[in-house]
Amino acid sequence: MAGILAWFWNERFWLPHNVTWADLQSTEEAAFPQAEDLYLAFPLAFCIFMIRLLFERFIAKPCALGLKVQANGPQKAQPNAILEKVFTAITKHPDEKRLEGLSKQLDWDVRSIQRWFRQRRNQEKPSTLRKFCESMWRFTFYLYIFTYGVRFLKKTPWLWNTRQCWSGYPYQPLMPDLHYYYIVELSFYWSLMFSQFIDVKRKDFGIMFTHHIVAVTLITFSYVTNLTRVGTLIFCLHDVSDIVLEPAKMANYCKCQKLSDLLFLTFAVVFIVSRLGIYPLWILNTTLFELYEALGNFPALWVFNVLLIVLQILHCFWSYLIIKTAYKAISKGKVTKDARSDVESSSDEEETVPRSKALDSAVATNGTSSANGTNGYLTGATCSEEH
């Protein structure tokens, strides 16, 4: 194991020429990032998750009920042992042949069986109340950490001059505020990575999980190699759009459509400007060019830049979905749905009215809710077209 670790942490891979791990050891005069510091992220991630549970139950839920957020989930399907066995063991979306067989077996018409399967699928969807509580928690955390980041960064020289990110490297002492900022962000991403399996399931689950893995990897290696200054800039830039997105979703759940649309369009502008404008011109410029000029070429430089470019690709994907939704908002007069929506749309719950009327009703109804990063991102379509 010692041999494997020595090979993995090879100085000539991770550090610039003439820099060794000994140069990054803490001394009496100055403290530097240490790999063992990152172990703090695991108990802190658990604490953040527990705080979230308490927050959602004792703060977010009363607020949601006070705002008249719908507490009940979708209508439950009537109990039926045969259909339940098919649903759980065979398929949740039976084809026409199976529907006809079940119709003969149960002496039900096909339409009633289709309705039962829709209700049963929707039964597994989270309630609007739960989604509101999740968004309120994310908004509270993002607002706190973004405010902390801005207060910290406005006192630093590298906010205004990115070349200062590399000035004096590796002899850049670890400030307590920077250490706290890094560990809290890392802990939050760890908590997101694990809680994503129990959170509201969205269509871009795989993409968001990839985003969290890339984020945790970048945070870890940038901390260990003391490339933390540019890391703080990335934190702040990514958090700014999320503090607008989550209120947009909360307004949507409260059926404040005009406020939700306004916040969403604000989020779209902030997201696109920050992720497609500032990020490549500010962050990628300094890591691709200024870092090379200051420290020369070394293998880890390309590892970091590849991960940062992967983030940029995810930004482009989400921006496409956001622009698509913004276009529909302008053309149809409202934003109706969250692109990272649930597995099935709310308009799929019932089909007791003709389809044309059901579609009209769906367009007039508030949609449901990363990415993340997101955490979730409003993207999407009206009614049930995407399903």
From TrEMBL:
Location relative to the cell: Endoplasmic reticulum membrane; Nucleus
Where it mainly occurs, coarsely classed, is: endoplasmic reticulum
Sample GO molecular function, one term = sphingosine N-acyltransferase activity
CDD domains per record = homeodomain
Q: What Gene3D superfamilies does the database record attribute to this sequence?
A: Homeodomain-like
Report the membrane topology from the UniProt record.
Answer: Multi-pass membrane protein
Spell out the GO cellular component terms annotated for this protein, sorted alphabetically and separated by semicolons.
endoplasmic reticulum membrane; nucleus
Q: Which residues form the TLC domain?
A: 130-331
- Tree of life domain: Eukaryota
Which pathway is recorded for this entry?
A: Lipid metabolism; sphingolipid metabolism; Sphingolipid metabolism
Domain Homeobox, chain residue ranges per copy: 83-127
- One Pfam family, short name: Homeodomain
- List all membrane-crossing ranges: 38-55, 179-198, 205-224, 262-282, 302-323
Question: Tell me, which GO biological process terms does this entry list?
Answer: ceramide biosynthetic process
Q: Which PANTHER family match?
A: CERAMIDE SYNTHASE 6, LONGEVITY ASSURANCE FACTOR 1 LAG1
Q: What is this protein called?
A: CERS6 synthase
